[in-house]
Every structure is written in structure tokens, then in C-alpha cells.
UniProtKB/TrEMBL annotation:
PANTHER family for the chain: 3-OXOACYL-(ACYL-CARRIER-PROTEIN) REDUCTASE (PTHR42879), 3-OXOACYL-[ACYL-CARRIER-PROTEIN] REDUCTASE FABG (PTHR42879:SF2)
InterPro entries according to UniProt: NAD(P)-bd_dom_sf, SDR, SDR_fam
Family (UniProt): Belongs to the short-chain dehydrogenases/reductases (SDR) family.
Source organism per UniProt: Streptomyces rishiriensis
Stated name of the protein: Putative reductase
Annotated signal sequence range: none
Gene3D superfamilies, A to Z: NAD(P)-binding Rossmann-like Domain
SUPFAM superfamilies, sorted: NAD(P)-binding Rossmann-fold domains
Length: 245
């Protein structure tokens, strides 16, 4: 399957790795983000592979902004059939759980992360429905294993799990699958101490792992996989998480 893929968010680490892998599978790629600081290398790699790549700035929590961005993608490339949305909780405020100001800031971080995923997926699904085929993949970025990061990432993950399952059920009849990829450390029981993550996930190896799994999920053979959470640990040196076919 080829066509146009949109990678929203994840301007660094995971997003570029996924974008380059999608281009290698024959997709033209559109990068959406609030701002771009290091996209030139990614664009150059994709264009050198013979595929087209555009960058479109959009406020990912704003419905109108994201809708307009998808319109630009459609005009520049075509209507997308694959959407990868990278969700990062962003800077985590300091302070204990009893600190009302810090707690309110954490709520804002969680709300922004969940809303960006919802807005991007809602806009992308509208385009995928025209094809009656498509793939939506939601990716959460690794965070530091500090206590505040843990308290912020857990509600983000829980919200995304519920959204993924609901969207998968709603879109299944239209041939669209929806899946979630998250760091293995985030799957630890929420009662575990925040300073004891299950796996130390490096940003680079995690990004390559996500790229591998994304390449599998967009394949026609993965049509029966939807509504699932897939947890990735860092790959050992020289050992890919999935083998290229």
C-alpha cells in the first residue's frame, strides 16, 4: 500500500524516524507540528529516497488549525491514508502532589497531550473515511522516570488507551485500524514506585522500534489488528525489534 502519510507531532526523535521509514515504504509524507526546529534533515532524506515531503505548521490542539493543515496536505500531495500522531506530555512541572499550582499545571499538560491526539485523529479520520481504508497509529513519547513525569504520563496513557479502543470500534466498519504504541516502562502497574521504571527506554532506540512497528501496522497483513496497545522496550544493539521482509 502506498499513498500519503501524515506524521503529526514528534518533531524530534520518533516523528522523523517514522517519517523516513514511511517514505521508504513508498509513501509521500507530510509533517505537521506546532513548530519545526530540525526538519530540514528529515525532508532531505525523504526527498533523496524519491518521495515527496512537505512541512505544515499547525496548532495541534486547535480544530480549525489542524483542519486547515490537512487541507494544505491534500492540496500539496493528496488525501492521506495513514496518520501517525506522536504525543508527548511536554515539560512536567515541579512540585509535590499536594502543591495545588503544580497539580493544576500537570492537569494542563495532560489535557493538551490528550487534546492534540483527539484533534489530529478526528481531522485525519475524516480524510481516511473517503478511502474506506486507512491506518491511525498513536505514539506516546518516552519521558524521564521522575515522580512528576510518572504522575503526568499515566493519565495521558490511560486516556489514549480508552480513545484508541473507542476509535477502533467506531472506524472498523470503514476499514480503518487504530492502534497505540507506548514505551514499555509506561505499562508498569501504576502502584509501582515512580523511581523504578520497568525498562530504561532510550529515545533513539525507541524511535527506531516505533518505526519498525509502524511499518508492520500499515501492511495489509495487519488489517485484523486494531484497538491494541503495543509496548516497546529499547532494542538491544544490532537486534531489530522486527525484521524487514
Amino acid at each position: 500500500m502506498t499513498g500519503v502519510a501524515v506524521v503529526a507531532g514528534g518533531g524530534e526523535h520518533t516523528g522523523p524516524a517514522v517519517a523516513v521509514r514511511l517514505a521508504g515504504r513508498g509513501f509521500d509524507v507530510a509533517l505537521l507540528d506546532t513548530e519545526f526546529t530540525a526538519a530540514d534533515k528529515t525532508v532531505r532524506q525523504i526527498e533523496e529516497s524519491g518521495r515527496r515531503c512537505v512541512t505544515v505548521e499547525a496548532e495541534l490542539t486547535d480544530t480549525r488549525s489542524v483542519g486547515a493543515a490537512f487541507g494544505q496536505v491534500r492540496s500539496a500531495l493528496s488525501s492521506p491514508v495513514v496518520l501517525v500522531t506522536c504525543v508527548g506530555p511536554g515539560p512536567v512541572p515541579d512540585g509535590s502532589p499536594e502543591d495545588e499550582l503544580a497539580d493544576e499545571q500537570r492537569y494542563g499538560v495532560v489535557r493538551r497531550a490528550l487534546r492534540s491526539a483527539f484533534v489530529c485523529c478526528q481531522a485525519g479520520a475524516g480524510h481516511l473515511l473517503h478511502h474506506r481504508w486507512g491506518r491511525i497509529i498513536i505514539v506516546t513519547e518516552p519521558v524521564d522516570a521522575g515522580g512528576n513525569a510518572w504522575r503526568t504520563s499515566q493519565p495521558v496513557l490511560a486516556g489514549l488507551i480508552g480513545f484508541t479502543r473507542s476509535a477502533a470500534l467506531e472506524l472498523a466498519r470503514s476499514g480503518i485500524t487504530v492502534n497505540l504504541i507506548a514505551p514499555a516502562e509506561s505499562a508498569v502497574d501504576s502502584r509501582a514506585p515512580a523511581h523504578q521504571p520497568a525498562v530504561n527506554v532510550g529515545a533513539g532506540s525507541y524511535a527506531e522500534g516505533v518505526a519498525h512497528v509502524t511499518a508492520f501496522l500499515i501492511d495489509d497483513q495487519a488489517v485484523g489488528i486494531t484497538g491494541q496497545e503495543i509496548y516497546l522496550a529499547a532494542a538491544q544493539a544490532g537486534v531489530p525489534l522486527l525484521r524487514e521482509r
